[in-house]
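Fold description:
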Amino acid sequence: MRELIRIMAVCVTAFLIVGITSAEQKTSNQPETIGEVYPNLASGALTFAKTWQLPEGVLLKAETVEIKLQDVNQSIEAQPVQLREELRKNAFFVLEQETAGKLLLQSAKKTLENPDKKSDEQLLDDYVKRLTEKVTITDQEIQTFYRENESVFCGTPLEKVKNQIGPYVLEEKKRRVLTEYVRTLGKRIDIIVSAPWVKEQAVLAKDNSLDKIRGNGKATLAVFSAASCCGPDKMLPVLDSLKAQYAANLNIMYLEARKEQILAARHNVYSIPTQIFFDKTGKETFRHTGFLSKDEIAKKLAEMGVK
């Protein structure tokens, strides 16, 4: 898992915003994207990949990059034993992470000077720096982060933690920029994935507590969280109150991010608490990182038409 997380940290993947092209705009022989056929499956580099027939044993082709079934299986078997079963159900996620890493490295070798004189890791680092070099933050963004995560600081005044918050907020903003860049790789590069294999994986990937309820005719609020250093999770009483109020029209799922590592990674959860709102079809419509009050959640639900 460490290698996957390392790739994710470099390549970075965050909000699932799938663009749907109407069927009328397609030609009859144009392959559909994974985001169109399986709108809740991809969360990064394969969102705009096309599904098509590939030679047996080959899962993906993109320019000079080719990934085989044995490559994905080897990556899974290299992970800690306790994660392997979950990863086998999420082999698509493993492929997506490997694809992001390989395609970013391919782009780095094409665009950076003297690529032969640097290691792959250094090339990736340099390429990520180039993509995010213009990203900056404001004092307002730092203040907003402090206000939304005040419980984490256990009463410490903003001025005493401002210098620690700034770098973190900047890295999170860079992460979002990289996330969008990776998510749209399929718009710039022709990525072809084995259609039969993706169909199988779309079924396996739903075998988890969240995917079993979202899209069941109700809106869904998923909260990835955990107890803070200052005591119990402040989100729990909020969720208990919401369950009583919205029982008939809203699924509420509380997930311990540390216990649900693969699911959290699939949904691009890097900080907790993170709240993700899904509509009745299971499509993500909004997410927020940091504490969110009952009134703020109720306001967002009202915007979604949930009463």
In short: Residues 1-28 have pLDDT under 50 and may be disordered. The first strand starts at residue 50 and ends at 52.
